[in-house]
Design a protein that fits this description.
heterodimer; A: 204 residues; mainly alpha; Four Helix Bundle (Hemerythrin (Met), subunit A); 71% helix; B: 504 residues; Cytochrome C Oxidase, Chain A; 17 helices
Chain lengths: 204, 504
């Protein structure tokens, strides 16, 4: 291809405005729509499940959660608390980053990383304690699909934390926008997880 | 157009010295590029190949339908071919073509040298490309929706997931560029209309594609393990079918409005009356996304109880008619701008104008499709809506290439061949789709090639096949013209690079 044609000179270099923050907002929206759509289908299936008598025979229940499946509430509630702690840690990172305090930023992100690993660990514990197969019933198939997708989003967030932490360790004091973007992603992930936790683990 | 040439000095020197580069290093540079123009052109080029393949499939199906006793296609393969026509047109052609052109043009228009997260955009392009290859392989192995090979259906679902991920990353890159990389003093409201339409499209896809991904995950897990809850292979269409038809496909047509308004802005040198109306028109078209994310169709039945009719009328109008209002506003304002005596005719206008016209015809058809009393669902009428919208987007995208292309490669496209080919393309679209509008009223069933096909089906199917053939010829000729112009066309003069504000 010839390039002898007329062309304008390059434009002035643009000062990018908070790109990471905007991208984080867009990805958070996408994550919310993903889990939101899965919850909508979950609720539709639950609403359409046939009725059955409760074990004490006093009321009619939707036959959605099989009687032999017990959800380990300690582990699931701990997950909910852990993600809230993650939020506090990422906000601490934002606070420290604003003051160009690299040590505390790294420390906060490190603790956040640990809490995120703890969440994944708790999710695995939930799977082990429930001891159900993917193909056992409609409930179990959908349970694994939605919780595994949520875990994938957490793993993506964990990767984001790792990147932010390594940049902080490397002394990038100008990375405040990235730390804020990281925090935004985790706030939104917390809201998304709370919705899933309430529908899947609390309401069952 | 607000045009700022964004080739970096490094890229420019690379291009001028390319005679010294080996073919492998040139290919390597293209494949690992972070230039938004190259990534965009890569995506558009691959999507054009998909368009050629899809139109060829459309032609094959059209020919097969002429006679119900024809055995050109094995009857068991027909559902897969109908499916690949739909999936290929939407995810192989319409979506990437719209996004690829946006990727090449939006940074130039906002005055940025680079696209935001350029490596991410390249990665998204590759994801989309490999996802579509996986989808194609799964179809070849009888694995599309309703396919007979279980493992290939699993592969199809994985491929679609990869395609969605790729399109999401590209959309995020474009939206971030439009939101954060504008030159100093350029507000979003003052940005060129094509930037606005690209932003609306990208955000719409970011909000709707994950919904499709959510359904896809359920279907994929169910299909791999249980095969009962979501209807196994047949459930694929039932659960993700909404993403393969209107109103979801209207979202891919939003850039066509931007292309038309942008070309008119250039023709009238930015003298656009009621510019705010254009922004509203583009925004109104995106209301289709609200209908899409509910994963439902909104129909109305006129001979029902008054209460039922009233209850269904509002969502019907909101999700099916509002996008039409948006398109009408944009067309009306463009025509109003062209009343300006100084308006200078432009060849790409023909393609862009008729492209939007085809999309509008498809949208109007969709309104009729959703009127239950007409009993048009499950007839070829639905296919005609897809062809009108899909081929309309292709026409408009080619108009965009004819308009923006010379600003990228510095050589003009000849006026008369562009207009002539454009008119042939329009003829092809009309002949390929209009007969199925008519055949829909004679109850010709959708996605069927054998058995009773309805009154005069032979005539309508013959005309539709001719239309597909004309469109295929048009595509080949236009792609050839683009290559010829890019290599040896007349050198573009200063005029096309002038910075024209479309905001006055």
């Amino acid at each position: 291809m010839s390039t002898s044609a007329t062309a304008l000179n390059a434009g002035p270099k643009i000062a990018m405005r908070r790109q990471a923050l905007v991208l984080s907002g867009l990805l958070s929206s996408a994550s919310a729509m993903l889990i939101g759509s899965m919850l909508a289908i979950w609720l539709q299936f639950r609403a359409n499940a046939p009725l059955r008598e409760s074990s004490d025979g006093t009321k009619m229940l939707r036959d959605w959660l099989p009687e032999n499946i017990k959800i380990p509430e300690v582990a699931t509630n701990t997950m909910m608390l852990t993600i809230v702690i993650t939020c506090i840690m990422v906000q601490w990172a934002v606070y420290a980053s604003r003051r160009a305090d690299s040590k505390h930023t790294t420390l906060a992100l490190g603790v956040a990383l640990l809490t995120q690993i703890a969440m994944i660990n708790a999710q695995i514990a939930v799977y082990l304690q429930m001891d159900i197969g993917v193909r056992d019933s409609s409930y179990t198939t959908m349970f694994y699909a939605i919780t595994a997708t949520m875990t994938l989003l957490i793993v993506i967030g964990l990767g984001f934390t790792l990147v932010a932490m390594f940049r902080s360790i490397a002394g990038r004091l100008s990375d405040h926008d990235l730390i804020v973007a990281h925090a935004v992603y985790w706030y939104s992930l917390t809201v998304i997880f709370a919705a899933m936790w309430f529908v899947v683990y609390v309401q069952k | 157009m607000t045009a700022i040439e964004t080739n970096s000095p490094m890229i420019a020197s690379t291009l001028s010295d390319d005679s010294g580069l080996s073919i492998f290093s040139a290919i390597s540079e293209w494949l690992t590029t972070t230039s938004h123009q190259r990534i965009g052109r890569l995506m558009v080029s691959i999507s054009l190949l998909w368009t050629l393949a899809v139109v060829a499939v459309g032609l094959l199906l059209g020919v097969e339908r002429i006679s119900s006793s024809s055995d050109l296609i094995d009857a068991t393969s027909a559902p897969q071919l109908f499916s690949i026509f739909r999936v290929g047109l939407i995810f192989g052609s319409m979506a990437p073509m719209a996004l690829g052109i946006s990727m090449a043009i939006v940074p130039m228009q906002v005055g940025s040298q680079v696209i935001a997260f350029a490596r991410g955009a390249l990665f998204g392009t590759y994801l989309w490309c490999f996802g579509m290859i996986i989808v194609a392989v799964s179809y070849i192995g009888n694995g599309g929706p309703g396919g007979g090979d279980r493992q290939m259906v699993d592969l199809f679902l994985i491929g679609m997931g990869v395609v969605i991920a790729g399109l999401l990353i590209v959309s995020a890159s474009i939206a971030t560029t439009a939101l954060t990389s504008r030159r100093a003093g350029l507000t979003l409201a003052d940005s060129p209309i094509y930037v606005w339409s690209s932003l609306v499209t990208s955000v719409s896809l970011i909000l709707t594609l994950p919904v499709m991904a959510g359904a896809l995950i359920y279907v994929a897990v169910d299909h791999t393990y249980e095969r009962a809850t979501f209807g196994a292979t047949d459930g694929v269409n039932a659960w993700i079918g909404w993403a393969l038809t209107s109103p979801q496909i209207f979202l891919f047509s939003i850039p066509t409005l931007g292309v038309l308004a942008q070309i008119v802005a250039t023709m009238t040198r930015g003298k656009q009356p009621l510019r705010g109306g254009l922004l509203i028109g583009v925004g109104l078209t995106s209301t289709a996304l609200i209908g899409a994310v509910t994963q439902s169709f909104y129909s109305v039945q006129f001979d029902s109880q008054l209460a039922d009719f009233a209850k269904s009328l509002l969502p019907f109008l909101m999700f099916n008619a509002l996008p039409i209002l948006g398109v009408l506003i944009v067309i009306a304002l463009c025509l109003l701008a062209m009343k300006n005596e100084k308006a200078k005719p432009s060849a790409p206008f023909v393609l862009a104008f008729f492209g939007v016209g085809m999309v509008l015809t498809g949208m109007i058809g969709n309104v009729l499709l959703r009127i239950t009393d007409l009993k048009l669902s499950n007839t070829v009428f639905d296919e005609a809506v897809l062809v009108y919208v899909g081929y309309g987007i292709v026409l408009s995208s080619l108009g965009a290439i004819a308009h923006f292309g010379p600003r990228i490669w510095g050589r003009k496209m000849p006026t008369m061949p562009v207009i002539g080919l454009g008119l042939i393309g329009v003829l092809g679209v009309v002949l390929a789709a209009l007969p199925y509008y008519i055949a829909g009223f004679t109850d010709q069933p959708a996605a069927r090639i054998t058995g009773e096909l309805g009154n005069n089906s032979q005539i309508w199917n013959s005309i539709a096949a001719i239309g597909q053939a004309i469109f295929l010829v048009f595509l080949v000729a236009f792609i050839g013209l683009v290559f010829k112009s890019a290599r040896s066309g007349e050198i573009a003069d200063e005029e096309i690079f002038e910075t024209v504000s479309a905001n006055s």
